[in-house]
Hints:
Blueprint: E1 2-7, E2 10-15, H1 20-26, E3 50-53, E4 60-61, E5 72-74, H2 78-94, H3 102-110, E6 158-160, H4 170-175, E7 185-188, E8 195-198, H5 214-218, E9 224-226, H6 227-234, E10 244-249, E11 258-264, E12 267-272, H7 286-290, H8 293-302, H9 306-315
Parallel strand pairs: 1-5
Antiparallel strand pairs: 1-2, 3-4, 3-5, 6-9, 7-8, 10-11, 11-12
Amino acid sequence: MTVSLTIDGRAVAVPEGATILDACRSIGEDQPTLCYLETLTPVNVCRVCVVEVAGSRTLVPSCSRAVEEGMQVMTSSARVARSRKVVFELLASSVELDLVDDDTRMWMERYSCEPGRFGPAAEPVTDRDHRHAGHHPAPDGVAAETVRQPVKVDNTLYVRDYSRCVLCYKCVEACGEDAQNTFAIAVAGRGFDARISTEFDVGLTDSACVFCGNCIGVCPTGALMFRSEHEMRRAEVWDEDRQQVTTTICSYCGVGCNLELHVQDNRIVKVTSPLDHSVTSGNLCVKGRFGYEYVQELGDLATTPIDDVLARAREEP
C-alpha cells in the first residue's frame, strides 16, 4: 500500500510506514541529519532535519515522522531554513565540528551559518564530569561557553574527545538495544551540562564496556576515535587521501562479518564495517574491529630474512 503526499509542491508516492526523510530521499531531495542513522532507532535530538508540515503548529523531525495521506511538506521554507541555521550555529559555537563529514559542511555553508556571532569561545571547563547539573554560572553575554575538555585516554583502543560531542545519542543507541545490548554508556547531567558518561563516571576499563567499538562506528563528529587515528592526527601524519580501503571477511570466527581495512603506508590504521552488510549492519566485536595487529606482525615477518626469523625463534623461551 502506498501513501501519496507532496514535498515542496511535488507529488510523491511512498510505501506506508515510510518517514518524511524516506520520501524526500526517494526523489533525490536529501535533508541534513546528525543524529539519524538507518541502522539505529531515531531519537529526534539534533533537530537539523526538521521540515514544515501544513496544519502542524511546530516543525517536525523528518527522520521519524511517518508520512500521511495528503500530507503537504515544505523543506525549504524560510521557517525551516532559519531553524536549521540557528541549530547549526548553536552547535558550532560550543562544539568542535572540524571533523564532521562533507555533507554537514555543505549544509552549514548553504544556510550561511555564523557561529561566531555568539561571541568568542569562553575559557574551557576542565572538569565537566563533576559539575553540579543545572547550576552553572549565568553567561556573561560576551563569550560563548563550550564543551571543551581534556581528551579521555584510558585504554589502548580508542579515545573519547567530548569537545566534539553533539549529544546525538548514536553511541548510546549502538551500545544499547539497537546493537550491542551492553548499556555501558548513557547521557548524564541536564541542560548544557548533559554529557555522555559511563556508570558512576568510571573509566572505560572499569565499566561495562566490552570494547566492541560500535560507538566509534556511528559517531558523526570524531568525538570517539581509534587510538591509532588520534595519535596519527596529533603527529600530523593522518592522511585519508593516501589510505586504501580493502573489504575482506573477518578471520576470527565463522559468522562472516565484513571488514573494511583502512591502510596507510602499508599499515592498517583502523577497521570499519559497511552499514549495508546483511551480517554486521556496520557492527563488529572487539576482535573484528581492533584485533588486526597480528596481520601487520605477519607482514613484517614475511619481509624478514629467514636467518633473522630463526635467530629470533631461538631467543624466545
